[in-house]
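[DERIVE STRUCTURE TOKENS]
===
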Amino acid sequence: MTSRRSLIRRSALVAAAGATALVLAACSSSSGSGHDMSSMQSKSTPSASASASAGAHNAQDVAFAQQMITHHRQAIEMADLAATRASSSEVKSLATTIKGAQDPEIKTMSGWLTSWGAAVPQDMKGMDMSSGMPGAMSTADMTKLDKASGTMFDTMFLQMMVQHHQGAVTMAKTEQSKGEYGPVKTLAASIITAQTAEINQMNALLKK
């Protein structure tokens, strides 16, 4: 009787041990699989993230940002002169508006170039840019504007800035037709709208 009970007890222990081994094996398999999946995800995530941060852009986007930064800097240089040389409050107000719009745009475009690994152009103040970009002033033009004051400055500033804005609009239209990066094309559209309105405003002031 005792021998039979002992045999039953041993069988039960063996069965329990087998079940435990199966559970542990299953847990180990599940844990290993989860580790492999996590490893795969960690390997794929950085490349996807890098791609998203870089964005889809082309050579035109880079060229536009680089050239427009330099173009904007010259416009701001001209606008700074108006604070002390212009006689018209309307010209001074316009100059303040131009600087207020273009300064942030320079920072935005510089950020794009940095994220793309492209060079942010150096400040070309004092250099002749008339042959490099549409509407840009020559060194001689900037010298004349710097020496002018009063109503003569007002007229010269408006005429030069109309030409300067027309060049920026031309550059922005090229970006819209040939660029690829959405935010750059959106900025180009904004430049066209804002600077076309300012061209109309300046032409109206010249007719007064």
Observations:
- The chain has six helices and no strands.
- Residues 1-53 have pLDDT under 50 and may be disordered.
- Residues 55-206 form a domain with the Ferritin fold (CATH 1.20.1260.10).
